[in-house]
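I am still getting used to backbone structure tokens and would like to learn alongside you. Label the sequence line and the structure token line clearly, so we can match residues to local backbone shapes. Would you write everything just below, so we can both look at the same thing?
***
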Amino acid sequence: MVVLYNIIRIFVANLRIQIKYCDMIRDFWVKNYLSIRDKQELSFVAKGPASELVAEVSDGVFLYKLGVLYGSNASGKSNMLIALNKVFSILVHPKSKVTSKINRIPFALTKDHPTEMYVSFFADGIRYDYGVTFNEKYILNEVLYYYPKKSKTLFYERSFVDENVQANIKFGQSLKLLDKTAESIRENTWNNHSALAVCGKVALKEDVATFIHLYDWIMKNYHDVDGDGEMGIVEILKEAYDDSRKRKFFNLMLQKADLNIMEFRPIIEDRVLPDELREHIEQNFYEKMKEDLLKPVTESIAFVNHSAEGNFEIPVKWQSKGTIKYIRILNVLYDMITNSHVYYLDELGEDLHNDLLYYYLNVFIFNSDKSQLIITSQETTILSQDLINENRGVVWFVEKNRETASSEYSRGDSFGLHKNLSLYNSYRIGRLGAKPELGSIFINLED
């Protein structure tokens, strides 16, 4: 095991490229969204570089590259990830129609109030600060600043005027936009999407390169919750197999996971469809879809397993939920090690043994300097790890306020715990909140 672990560390070190840029969130806050009524904040700012959990994203700027949100079921952990995803979605995704609504779910008791979000983040080594206020129909105002030369500079600011009136948009002088370009952006900025999102629907002139660069960077390096969700497990593994370095990484990580898997390879399988299903497809689907669904063979993946009596293959369809989950997050891990990315993984640890979860997180922590991983989890034994206990700023405890039913988030270093007190033990005895208060185990159904 030790030898294999060292092999993986050496291999991962060789995988890593000299990344001069980084992508990380500095801080984020949200108000009136999902289960969050009052302003709730996540700050990844660290005091200094004295930890493997900290990365220097700019001269003298240190951020935590890991964030862990704990809480009971329905506490609102996942909602913070959804909100993080939402603010970037608003920033880069245009609407197809001027009448399209913004997908917004406000807190139930303040649904008539707008939603507010703010995120400070790094893209290609440059800091950006973005704030937006919106309802289900319009972006009421938004402002984007950046720090191209370490000083705060206006990128653009915009405010809502009226339903059928063009938004009022002011651009920063440092962008050096031509008047025609600025007017083109204004004309194409509908009231239901951001000014930056215009890059996703209109071909702009060369003088807007700063706009396009930021747009492309976010699209490529900031991801949806649990990844972008476009690829199936067979597609993920086929792509990895076709890249020799990525294939080697997957094979080594699968071996280390103690799944009895030595390697994987693409295969062709016969497709067997019941007559009733085949008839349904023939009668109810378009020709192209029908052709794909009725192919006599299908592409799949086989895993080579080892035994004392010889190796044998098991198809992907017979693998456990845990193995499939692990393969999906390996794809994320490879990205974070070999490039600069921000990923959010919901309920990490679900379907995984806790030792495998620790190993996954440690490979990320010790081999990625320019990426950030933000997770929710109910695997509380992570809190017993020395590295986490010594860096309590990477942990947030989430619980519902009993009076307001709103989610509240408390950073692990905000409780004033002595450094010799364990986060894990403190959480178990209820000193940090974020635990379910369960009723009696005895059930009485009589009136």
Remarks:
- The chain has a mean pLDDT of 88.
- DSSP finds twelve helices and 18 strands in the chain.
- Residues 32 and 111 are 8 Å apart (CA to CA).
- The longest strand covers residues 261-270.
